[in-house]
Structures are given as structure tokens and as C-alpha cells.
Amino acid sequence: MTINIQPIGKISTPYKEKFAIPRQPGLAKSAEGKITFFEGFNDPNYLRGIEQFSHLWLLFHFHQTADKGHSPLVRPPRLGGNKKLGVFATRSTFRPNGIGMSVVEFGSVSYQNNQLSLIVRGIDLLDGTPILDIKPYVPYADSIVQASGGVAQHSPELMEVTFSEQASSQLNQFESHYPKLAALIQEVLSQDPRPAYHKDSHSDKTYGMSLYDLNIQWQVINQQNVVLAIQLI
Ligand code: SAM
Known about the structure:
This protein is mostly beta strands. It has helices spanning 139-142, 165-175, 181-189, and strands at residues 9-12, 32-37, 55-61, 73-74, 85-86, 99-112, 115-121, 129-136, 160-163, 206-211, 214-221, 224-232.
């Protein structure tokens, strides 16, 4: 049996590459995305009443990894990349049908110049991700307080993030354009995006990630992430 699915829209986000995107929604609360609706769904009636829900489920397609296929076993980064779990026991992007699901905070709806859009916050989606469906988060059914989270019982430990003098002055330059930039960088880097096999090393490697049209460089110094530079790409 084959099912054809038509995306309802796509999301634009600050995350221009996979590297450093938090592993789940809500970890970087300042990460804002804008869903624009495709023809056939570009009608405000589709969103009527949605503002009464504080949070929404987004179902989406892991479009950037979809052509990489999948295997029954994956190595979750949570386990340091050394142990394997069944793909259905993980939230891996490499899965049959490549469907992702994220709970995000509702922001606002707008309909301007005949274009319907929806702002959401706390996203973990790459820029340009196709959106397949949107549903309200319903606390009485979706929140299970006594649920067991297995290997992902607790949110990841956070790292301290500081800004060098140079990075602070560069931040000032860009903050009028990106008002939540400092918070976003702080939230993303506090997740320690380094690959698992780098975490125990004491190297002075400089890492880089892109947010919006900016390249952010940082180093790990005394167990802290120190932002060194923020520059236009
Ligand atoms: N919350 C979703 C879920 O549980 O289905 C996604 C979890 S997945 C572990 C999160 C990672 O997916 C992000 O860190 C990012 O690297 C990756 N990702 C986000 N959007 C993607 C896309 N469109 N294609 C491929 N990978 C994507």
C-alpha cells in the first residue's frame, strides 16, 4: 500500500543546517519559525480557533535526510553514539517514512497579501522543512505526568555559555535585526552541540554553526562554551 501525502506548507526557521539544532522542541524557546501555507491550504479558515491553544503539534517531513534510508537499529546521540536501539524506540531522523513530530508554542496567525502564516516557537526544525499537519496539543490526553522516558527521562544537562568582548559587540550590531539573538545563541549552545566523541576531549577546537545568515564561532574553555565571533556569512 502506498499513501501519497501533500505537505500543507513549509516552515522558515533560524536553523540553516542540521548541526547544533536542539534534539527536541522547547529546548531553545527563542527559536521562532514561520509556517507559510501552500496553495490549497492558504485559507484562514484552516486555522480558525487555533489561538485558544497555547501549544501545537507539528507533523513534518525530515526532508534533508529522507533519501538516506533507514535501518532497524540506530545509535542515539544520548547514548554517546556507542549503543544501538531499535529505530522505533528512538526519535531518530533516519526512519521509515521520515515523519517528525514536535510540540511547539503557538505564536500568532496572520493573513497578509493573500498569504496565510503561523508563527510558532521552541522549534527543532531545519529551515524549509515541509509541514504535513498541525494539531492542537491537548494537555489532558497528551501530558502523562508519570510516563517513563527510558534513556531520555531527563532533559540534557546544560552548559554555561558566555560571550567574548568581541562577540558581545558584534551581538549589539545584529540585535536590532534579530532581537532574540543572544537568547537563541545561549539556548542552542547550552545544549552542547558537539559530537559525542568530542565531549571528553580537552581540545581548543573552534566550532561554528549558522543561525539566520550568521556564522557563530565558539570554543570550549574550562567546561564553558565561549562565543568568540558572530559574523555575516
Ligand atoms: N521532535 C522531532 C521528533 O521527535 O520527531 C525531531 C527530533 S530529531 C532527533 C531532531 C533533529 O532533527 C534536529 O536536531 C535536527 O538535527 C534534525 N532535523 C530537523 N529538521 C530536519 C529536517 N527537515 N530534515 C532532517 N533532519 C532534521
